[in-house]
Amino acid sequence: MARSVRLSIRFLLPLFGLLGSPATAQVTTSPKNVAVNPSPTAPVTQTASGNRLRNEKSPYLLQHQHNPVDWFAWGEEAFAKARQEHKPIFLSIGYSTCHWCHVMERESFESKTVAAYLNENFVSIKVDREERPDVDTIYMTFVQSTSGQGGWPLNCFLTPDRQPFYGGTYFPPESRYGRPSFLDVLHHIAELWRTRPAEVKGSAAQLHAQLESITTRAATNHPALDSHALTHAARVFMNTYDATNGGFGGAPKFPQPSQPAFLLCASSRNGDASALQMVLHTCDQMAAGGIHDQLGGGFARYSVDAHWLVPHFEKMLYDNAQLANLYLDAYTAHGASRHAETVRDILRYVLRDMTHPEGGFYSAEDADSEGKEGKFYSWTRTEVADLLSPAEFKVAARYYGLTAAGNFVDHSDPHPLPQQNVLSIVDPNLAAGEAAFLESARAKLFAARSRRVRPHLDDKILASWNGLMLSAFARAYAVLGDESYRAAAEKNLAFLRARLWDESSHTLYHRWRDHQRDQVQLLDAYAFLLAGVLDLYQATLEPRHLDFAVALADAMLAKFYDPAAGGFWQSAGSPDLILRIKEDYDGAEPSGNSVATLALLKLAAITGRADFQTAAETTLQLFQSRLHSQPQAVPYLLLAADFASAPPRRAVIAGDPALPETRRLIAAVHATYQPGKVVLGNTGAVESFARTLPEKDGPLVYICTGTACQAPTRDPVRIREALH
Prior knowledge:
Low-confidence stretches: 1-5, 21-47
Number of strands: 21
CATH class of the domain at 10-214: Alpha Beta
Strand order of the largest sheet: 1-3-2-4-5
Number of helices: 25
Distance between the termini: 37 Å
């Protein structure tokens, strides 16, 4: 969606004079970039059974099941009530590990006064953005296009036919931060609806028409990108590089792994050493920062400052999956063992804390515990001193930069935690013998932290995010050779096929939790899982994985591809949506269009299927203006454009993939950083030329471009040279 386009709101200003433009600014951190937990409201007496959200599976919706607000889930029951009673819809979107969603719940949705007003004047709907990103995209587009900003909680007011006319993010209980109070907003909206409903509906209809216009793209025959445009895109990223702290842009600082991944790709193509150093420095700074959990592994969602120190403490599966892949790229491109260790650290965390016994990966961990952001992760200097021996403390305090004053300010009321330290690597230089003290200190601190009250775990399992993590485990097995990573990847795929894939209809559903799957079909689920299965095939050369990848790709094309204009719809024509959108923004997560495009290009190179190639190329053509004018918005799609810019190198491995000598050759191919390659065997659903390449006195590797291959080899040095 074209987030740079603003909706015209001139005709709304007379209606919303009290409230200003029909959206409020994003709230991801407090005005001082520190965590804020406002005073909790007085306890609210709840019914034993709760509201109707008690019947849902979403952890986010279940968090609201005891609110006095008469919440509905997204669906026809709520829409029918709004139509029958001629009431506006109040739509609130968030997710279970969202700190500011918790704040607004405590301040407003647990308030009997607010709930009574909502229940009398609105039909209130709760949506989990992680379960229904297609719903979230529509209304986030509206808020971003009317204000230029967005975030969660996302709060929108809709007509009974679901057209938005006013929206914002966090609304405080009293006017502050330049925002009206939530109750003031409710009073004003209800009065407008009561006294001027025709004008509100007319404005909503005009906004809907504009929203439809800015989310529609016409087909184009223009080429996607040439080499000069790719170089220009890389320069755009490099111009925002933070030479001191690493990363791109300022605070708050998000990893956005597809940005450095594209720069690493560009450095390989152009031989640009400066781009490579930017990526390596960024990886080093993130790994040393507080955004990286120095004790338990894994990365938080972002840092509130520019130097990766104080995180917003929630941990998301999709971030950690993409970061594992980025550090694998850094390791294969540069060879530094510290990047491989960061990968192991991430995957160790996921296997320990984020994995269902049957193999699925959970979605997220909260920022808050015991009502305070970061309490689980932070330490006072005194706490650490009491846990460790004097020798251990001396090393740990210097290494992690522990101070009496602390480096993290807790602003929660009425009893903020004083003198808190977020652990980061401040002085990595260890004298002889100090490494052992540091390791014993880490073990003691981790054991002590494990006895604390853990943050909330969002234990739903999403096909999309599991596809990203499947990719990370598959590639980690291929590059690092740890058999436990292959076992985790195989077990994860078996779980997804058993729980979310319907073999008879070739349908992939999106969410599984508590022994139940949903009925939602999303492009992200198909595209992300396709990419993950492809990586597992390339790591193992098991023909059954390639067969499943082809089945997924065929189903994705049938359900989501637009053959008239190119590109993929975000959802499979759900009747509950007011728009069908082709998502084109690679933010914290890459878009389904971007992932589908690169996956189809790779699958076409492996199988020789021309229809996969055509769908990918027309998608690149559809978004070519976006690639040219706003490359920073589509870094993952740039990876696809780069892959499409030259014939890929095909590493064909002739031999039984179950044999140790064949596996060694697979590992040798994956040890070389070459973003323009695919890896395939010579049996199964691979392209016809690969099936003609034989093994001779054992397995061999053929590095081919088109129908030309270099001399077959089993020498790792020659493999590396051929791939370069």
